Recover the amino acids of this structure.
């Protein structure tokens, strides 16, 4: 007995089956992620190495080439590209489409670990291996501008105030601050003054490592009292850094301010983000895998209105990027297409059968079929 025959003879069973299909379809729809493109991770692995102060020739000969020679022996590589810049090396390895991305990343990590012993000993940490992620692109970006505050102050405000209120949005994996400049103590050494005292830059580094440290000091105990001892060894102000003793002998005492200029500045002064010539920072939202981009955008807009109302008078917020607008338009277009198709189907059936009861039957069949598709899409990821 066919399904159609059973449905005709047992209409109650057919209604119950349709309701079950609709129920599972609604459940699947609620768990479906909505994004602009499919979540497909390309089989690309990147290796980044930082070597501050080294020029591009040293980076290429001492870091990039040894790593490339070691990575070349991995099976399944389609293409390798690299760039050696001032202070950093970047190697991008593209694998064949059939290669598992996790397996490829593990193979690269093994080869990089083997080649690490041939790299310079004073590099800034071991090479970092990362695999390409389809969810690593931000979906919403908001700029923060001020005509009274510096970029460093804006960066601090964006990190400690704005980011904290945005990164708790459901479905958000993290917040990225673009154009950020973190506070740092900048020491500009005068080589002539340094040599006149018979010192080198290594002496300054040694003094900083020895004096700018906070160690556990234990505790003091008595018959009825126990006190924790805290040693304040960290340098926190410009004056403390300037008065740091580099050399102390019977002839003279050399302080850091005697051989250098010490100022409170930013960690990175080489990059800046501007709009119409005005420096600014941007706060970008990164989604979680499988997250609903439309729900993230809806919650962001609510919090954005509250942020604008709570901002100081000199800070201006502006949404510079919202990729969910294209998703909303696509969803609207799909709904319009389904509606047009449904109307055309009803008209064509009526023209053939000349019976409105038969013509309006697709109003039940097509929605049930579409809703059932949501559950199938959820099962197959």
């Amino acid at each position: 007995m066919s399904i159609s025959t059973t449905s005709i003879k047992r209409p109650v069973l057919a209604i119950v089956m349709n309701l079950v299909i609709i129920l599972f379809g609604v459940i699947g729809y609620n768990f479906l992620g909505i994004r602009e493109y499919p979540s497909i991770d390309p089989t690309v692995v990147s290796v980044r190495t930082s070597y501050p102060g080294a020029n591009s020739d040293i980076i290429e000969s001492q870091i990039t080439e040894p790593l490339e020679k070691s990575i070349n022996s991995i099976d399944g590589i389609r293409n390798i590209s690299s760039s050696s810049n001032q202070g950093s090396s970047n190697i991008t390895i593209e694998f064949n489409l059939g290669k598992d991305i996790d397996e490829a990343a593990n193979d690269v990590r093994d080869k990089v670990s083997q080649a690490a012993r041939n790299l310079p000993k004073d590099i800034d940490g071991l090479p970092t291996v990362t695999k390409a992620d389809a969810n690593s692109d931000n979906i919403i970006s908001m700029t923060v501008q001020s005509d009274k505050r510096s970029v460093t102050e804006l960066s601090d405000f964006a990190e400690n105030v704005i980011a904290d209120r945005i990164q708790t949005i459901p479905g958000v994996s993290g917040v990225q601050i673009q154009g950020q400049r973190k506070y740092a103590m900048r020491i500009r050494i005068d080589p002539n003054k340094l040599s006149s005292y018979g010192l080198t830059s290594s002496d300054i580094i040694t003094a900083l490592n020895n004096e700018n440290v906070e160690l556990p000091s234990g505790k003091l105990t008595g018959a009825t009292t126990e006190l924790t001892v805290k040693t304040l060894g960290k340098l926190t102000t410009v004056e403390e850094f300037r008065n740091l003793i580099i050399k102390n002998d019977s002839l003279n005492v050399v302080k850091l301010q005697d051989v250098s200029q010490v100022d409170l500045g930013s960690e990175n002064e080489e990059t800046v983000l501007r709009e119409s010539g005005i420096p600014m920072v941007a706060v970008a939202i990164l989604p979680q895998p499988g997250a609903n981009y439309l729900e993230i955008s809806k919650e962001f807009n609510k919090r954005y209105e509250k942020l604008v109302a709570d901002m100081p008078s000199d800070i201006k917020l502006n949404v510079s990027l919202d990729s969910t607008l294209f998703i909303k338009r696509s969803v609207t277009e799909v709904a319009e297409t389904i509606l047009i198709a449904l109307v055309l189907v009803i008209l064509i059936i009526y023209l053939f059968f000349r019976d409105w009861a038969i013509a309006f039957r697709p109003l039940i069949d097509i929605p049930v079929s579409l809703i059932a598709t949501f559950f199938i899409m959820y099962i197959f990821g």
